[in-house]
Specification:
The complex is a heterodimer of chains A (about 500) and B (about 240). In chain A, α21 links the parallel β6 and β7 (about 480-485). Chain A has helices at about 35-40, 50-65, 65-75, 85-90, 100-115, 115-120, 120-125, 130-140, 150-155, 160-175, 180-190, 200-220, 245-260, 285-300, 310-325, 340-350, 375-380, 385-400, 430-435, 440-450, 460-470, 485-490; strands spanning about 235, 265, 305-310, 340, 365-370, 455-460, 480-485. Chain A is about 45% helix and about 5% strand. In chain A, the strands form two sheets. In chain A, strands 2-1-3-4 form a four-stranded parallel β-sheet. Chain A has a three-stranded parallel β-sheet with strand order 5-6-7, sandwiched between helices. Chain A has two domains: about 35-185, Fumarate Reductase Iron-sulfur Protein, Chain B, domain 2; about 190-405 and about 455-500, no CATH class. The mean pLDDT of chain B is about 95. Chain B is built from 13 helices and no strands. Chain B has helices at about 1-30, 45-60, 60-65, 65-85, 95-100, 105-125, 130-135, 135-160, 165-175, 185-200, 210-215, 215-220, 230-240. Chain B starts with a helix and ends with a helix. Chain B is mainly alpha-helical and about 240 residues long. At the A-B interface, α2, α3, α5, α7 and α9 of A face α1, α3, α7, α8 and α11 of B. The complex binds protoporphyrin IX containing FE (HEM) (2 copies) and iron/sulfur cluster (2 copies). One iron/sulfur cluster binds near residues 86 and 146 of chain A.
Chain lengths: ~500, ~240
């Protein structure tokens, strides 16, 4: 079990709603950004002098630009329906981690400066001035929201705390109070092209290595092409897929699927990153700038289609926003949606029967599936609502014999976040991440105990990294997290593949 | 008394209509630059109408969230709706047939309304999480509605007032004629509180009623790949 300098919550039999306990997470906040990471994004390097005034001005600006912000701030009736829906509240008991408690940190200031009752009777409606203490609270608690939207499912007006968190982060950035993790990464994307700061040549090396591995293992020359002009499909995937476990096994799987489908594809060194942290910081401008790389890469390479790899928030940005931010994509093949998810692609190939699959290759596992928040509640796959739940499960069932779902209240639209989304996947928030995973881990543990589940598949780079890191705190094994395309990769029998004697040796190590 | 109430109701009506109009204008004017429906979401306009219908009439999301709040809230709102519909008889002549037909249920709907309100208020004391998020205004709003309901019910079930005169007074206001208002204490209380309700409406959380129709997570069609969606201010970024 991993060691922690905080108390790891004990797993309960059920996911219980605790009595609240004020201030339990007041100490939690991520490292502050530095001027070097602020300025490339268009933000002041440090707290500006007249920050109160500037912050209120920015708030007014956002109220006019985002209907969601205006409507959500005005409409909450304090009914309490959302109060027990956030994984961070359930695991930390801190009332400021109740979705409405989090919104209220900002709403109180909104009321004070933008509504008549707040101006004249602040006490009556709970309005407060914007002070340094309030700003500190914002910094702390708006970085305890993984923007998972679980609260928005249950709110009678669909109030989405993620929208409020994004706006709050945008306001803070605009006065020079940025978060290091997100802003450093965005600055890196602008400078090098991906979150990991992996330059083009290193990427080419990595992909060559993958080709060799797959060849050694199967005797088939599966290609992992980079910057190949004239390929049909541009694949944009989170950079973790290039080397981190279990992500890379997923990337190997994509290559095998494309190989068998007989289509030409390529990765791009310009758009070598699907992640778009511009969303986490609520910045339309940065999100747009990052998205435009995909458009440019598609134009330069002359591809006909765009397919996104396994990543949650990247799929949200791609599915829901890409057409808005970087469209129109009238230069691509109109017969395919832009963009497509790799699972949509694989699912279609399975339907067509182009893939030869041996389910028994995964017989050493009993699978369950973690619905990643941004896929489940902020996007779709396939033509029908809810395809984002059915397609991944259908693919898993096509490549595995053993599949069991977790408790119905913790999957699909009610899925519990991994605890590391929304720009919180950083070591300086380890306590929050471990605690936030508790409801999901509880459900997983129950599925393990009740149905013999051994592995949990996910389709999000953040979820995969987060679980690999936090599961050991709960006494579970980091290898229990797998990529969906890793399962596909195991089961797929390539045309001309050598019948393999040492198959057992190359499973997980 | 008649003159004071006539002026009060004119003032309240102006504040209510102008205030609410302004707030709705603000909701409508702010664009939704990104597609953010909470999915799974309908993929057609008709689907969205149905989704909003279910939210407004059945409080679908609240039902998913907590059954107790849902029961009280639904009793209160449906009661309120029937009571208000029943009240239309003071303002229309002849009284519309549907309003005529619900006169009987409308009377008992007030009980659902008041019980619902009481239940919702109870939650504000009994559930620690709801207690934590309640500001004084949240309590006052419930008290206000409870008192309106109770004063009205007193007139309906205990101390009747002359509703023919009440109707004459309000019909008169609508055509700028002053007719005498009965000076019954419960009627005076009832009407005073109603005027207060109308005045605070545009400045309070009662904006949830128009708000739900403008909520992007509920009113957007899930078709971002098929149809490009760009706000005016965002289009300007494309020009540079
Ligand atoms: C489109 C019409 C409306 C819809 C869909 C609607 C829906 C809701 C819902 C779902 C709630 C949350 C649950 C609760 O706490 O009760 C609520 C609360 C509330 N509604 Fe409405 N409502 C509407 C109109 C109105 C009107 C016209 C009034 C008042 C005159 C009103 C007064 C209230 C109050 C006071 C609360 C808060 C109750 C509390 O303190 O717990 N609503 N409404
Ligand atoms: C200008 C507006 C209003 C007028 C003139 C008015 C007048 C009246 C009168 C005369 C009664 C007694 C009915 C009877 O004796 O049968 C009554 C009852 C009642 N009123 Fe109002 N009222 C108004 C607005 C409201 C509002 C906005 C509410 C709720 C928020 C409300 C809630 C009730 C209730 C619950 C009853 C008892 C049940 C019933 O008879 O329908 N009233 N009202
Ligand atoms: S979006 Fe998720 S993390 Fe944020 S408040 Fe809502 S439930 Fe909690
Ligand atoms: S569910 Fe919605 S309306 Fe109710 S308290 Fe939470 S945010 Fe406010």
């Amino acid at each position: 079990m991993a060691k922690a300098d905080f108390k790891v919550p004990e797993l309960q039999e059920f996911i219980e709603v605790p009595l609240l306990e004020e201030g339990t997470m007041a100490h939690s906040h991520p490292f502050h950004s530095k001027p070097d990471f602020q300025e490339p994004l268009g933000y002041p390097g440090e707290l500006v002098e007249n920050w109160e005034e500037k912050a209120i001005e920015k708030m007014g600006d956002l109220l006019g630009k985002y209907r969601s912000f205006q409507v959500f701030l005005d409409s909450c009736v304090k009914c309490g329906a959302c109060t027990d829906k956030c994984h961070y509240y359930l695991s930390t008991k801190d009332p400021k981690n109740m979705p409405v408690g989090r919104q209220d940190l900002l709403r109180k200031v909104y009321r004070r400066y933008f509504t008549l009752p707040g101006k004249y009777f602040p006490k009556l409606v709970g309005a407060v001035d914007l002070t340094k203490d309030v700003l500190d609270d914002w910094y702390s608690y708006f970085h305890q929201c993984s923007q998972c939207r679980r609260c928005s499912v249950f709110c009678p007006y669909g109030i989405d705390t993620a929208e409020i968190s994004m706006a709050a982060r945008e306001i803070m950035d605009s006065i020079g109070v940025g978060q290091k993790y997100c802003n450093e990464i965005i600055a890196k994307v602008y400078k090098i092209g991906n979150n990991l700061g992996l330059p083009g040549p290193a990427l080419a090396d990595t992909l060559e290595g993958l080709e060799e591995d797959v060849y050694d293992e199967t005797g088939v020359e599966v290609k992992y092409p980079l910057d190949q002009k004239g390929a049909d499909i541009l694949v944009v995937t989170p950079s973790a897929d290039f080397f981190a476990e279990p992500h890379v096994d997923g990337l190997i799987g994509y290559g095998k699927v494309f190989h068998e489908a007989g289509v030409s594809w390529t990765l791009s060194s310009k758009a070598s990153e699907a992640a778009n942290f511009g969303m986490f910081i609520g910045s339309y401008e940065n999100m747009r700038r990052i998205s435009l790389r995909i458009r440019e890469a598609a134009l330069e390479l002359g591809v006909k289609r765009i397919v996104m790899g396994e990543c949650g928030h990247a799929w949200r940005v791609a599915y829901s926003f890409l057409n808005t931010l970087a469209g129109p994509f009238d230069f691509l093949d109109p017969n395919y949606p832009v963009p497509q998810h790799i699972l949509e692609f694989t699912y279609n190939e399975i339907q067509k029967g182009t893939l030869k699959l041996d389910k028994s290759a995964n017989d050493d596992k009993v699978l369950t599936f973690h619905d990643s928040c941004n896929v489940a509640r902020a996007s779709r796959m396939g033509p029908k609502p809810g395809g984002q739940f059915e397609i991944p499960r259908a693919v898993i069932k096509a490549v595995c014999n053993n599949f069991v779902d977790m408790d119905a209240d913790t999957i699909q639209e009610k899925s519990f976040c991994c605890g590391g989304g929304g720009g919180l996947l950083t070591d300086d928030l380890m306590e929050l991440r471990v605690k936030g995973a508790q409801p999901r881990v509880t459900a997983l543990k129950n599925a393990m105990d009740d149905s013999g589940v051994t592995h949990m598949a996910a389709v999000c780079a953040i979820c995969k990294s987060q679980f690999t890191k936090v599961l050991p705190y709960y006494g579970l094994d980091m290898d229990q997290i797998v990529s969906v395309h890793q399962l596909v990769s195991e089961a797929i029998i390539l045309t001309g593949q050598k019948s393999d004697e040492d198959e057992d040796g190359e499973d997980e190590d | 008394m008649t003159v004071v109430f006539a002026l009060l109701f004119y003032a309240a009506s102006i504040v209510f209509v102008a205030g609410l109009g302004y707030r709705i204008y603000r909701f409508a004017k702010a664009p939704a630059p990104l597609k953010i429906p909470t999915t799974p979401a309908p993929v057609t306009e008709a689907g969205v109408v149905l989704r909003l219908f279910r939210e407004v009439v059945f409080f679908e999301s609240l039902f998913k969230a907590t059954k107790w709040t849902w029961i009280f809230s639904w009793a209160f709102h449906m009661g309120l709706f029937l009571v208000l519909a029943r009240h239309l008889r003071y303002f229309t002549d002849p009284v519309w047939t549907p309003v005529e037909l619900i006169q009987f249920i409308g009377k008992y709907a007030s009980i659902a309304m008041v019980v619902g309100l009481a239940g919702l208020w109870g939650r504000r004391f009994l559930v620690d999480r709801v207690r934590y998020i309640s500001a004084p205004s949240d309590h006052l709003m419930l008290i206000l509605l409870l008192l309106i309901g109770l004063s009205g019910m007193t007139m309906t079930f205990v101390a009747h007032t002359d509703i023919v005169l009440v109707k004459a007074f309000f019909r008169g206001l609508m055509t700028f004629h002053l007719n005498p208002l009965p000076a019954d204490p419960f009627l005076i209380i009832h009407l005073l509180l109603v005027a207060i309700l109308m005045i605070v409406f545009p400045f309070s959380k009662l904006l949830h009623a128009p708000g739900i129709f403008f909520s992007p997570t509920r009113n957007q069609v899930d078709n971002p790949r098929e149809k490009r969606h760009v706000a005016a201010w965002a289009r300007k970024l494309e020009e540079t």
